Amino acid sequence: MIHAGQLSNKKILIVDKDQKQKNDRTWSFWETKPGIFEEVVYRKWKHTWFHSADFSRLLDLSPYEYKMIRGIDFYQYCFTIIQQHPNFEIKYGDIQLITNEDNLAVVQLNDEKITAEYIFNSILFEKPALKDKDYYLLQHFKGWIIETDTPVFNPSEATLMDFRTGQQHGTTFVYVKPFSATKALVEYTLFTEKLLEPSQYDIGLKDFIQRFLKIELYKITEEEVGIIPMTNYKFPAVDGRIVNIGTAGGQTKASSGYTFRFIQKHSARIVDNLVKRGNPFIALPGGPRRFKFYDSTLLHILKHNKLPGDKIFTRLFKKNKPQQVLRFLDNESSLSDELKIISSLPTLPFLKAALKQF
User: pLDDT digits over 161-180, tens only?
Assistant: First the structure.
């Protein structure tokens, strides 16, 4: 049995591909109160815009705040804490294999074989073998941090989703996070089965900045790219002594791609179980099973093009309070919230898709 005081005596090895010395990504999420990473929240907004071809609204999110954390700030914050504990060690390299052997977890790092009592794995080595009624889309994106010579942004208002950009590739939107009157992150995002050619993301960003932000002259100071699987495939929580976390552990919201807060809730439960029961084996969180059903229904619709994604999200935000939608996306909504949300969506396509899940 591991007790709270014993955790500090355990040798903990952190393995990563390379050192985290640049701002390679951002995470966005919403909360109603300060979270454990509040100290490194770079910007937050109480008001966000939603735009589509036939609907625009400035959403008052209160009591929620839409928050953003920069990767570099997150890394520095975490490593500062880690360095205060001598039982932590960090190694860098390529992981060839993670497996179980003789009641131990094993990782092959470069040419070194390392054994451990447990391995917490966040690597999704390959696309899973899908079964009937498993859907697998990709959320893929490219973002630019741009700077202008003259004030063009309102720093107190972000854009949560803007679907006015072209939908020819599938469900496509842009979000804008202003840091100041002259600086913002503009991210071009798609929910589709296939990636675009690299130049197509640039075309989408340039077009949006010119047509909808009305900006002709700007400087690109940073860029980020990413791919997040959106799937109802049931990732294994545990494999012997290997505990899967992050996307590999099923912590990505299947219908939206949001991951950050789900990871925090999952990790908190693992630590709690280690302290109280001496092992990290927990059931996957995520709320009642009905949320998996909702996700599968929406993925079916998007996969089979039964209804354009921009129309679905427009109905969600046009006919419901933003707080209800955010609770729903966090798997924290009540049944009354969900009945209201479901009734706001086109009945026939969703009814047919829902029946397919049974």
Answer: 999 999 999 999 999 999 99
C-alpha distances out from residue 175 to 187, 198, 213, Å: 5, 19, 11
Residue 256's nearest CA partner among 337, 177, 318, 173 is 173
pTM over 0.85: yes
Whether residue 181 has pLDDT greater than 50: yes
Q: Which residue has the tokens 């940073």?
A: 222
d(C-alpha 280, C-alpha 287), whole Å: 19
Q: Is the pLDDT of residue 9 over 80?
A: no
Give the contacts of 234 (CB within 8 A, at least 6 positions apart): 250
Tokens of 42: 């770079």
Strand-pairing partners, residue 12, are: 88
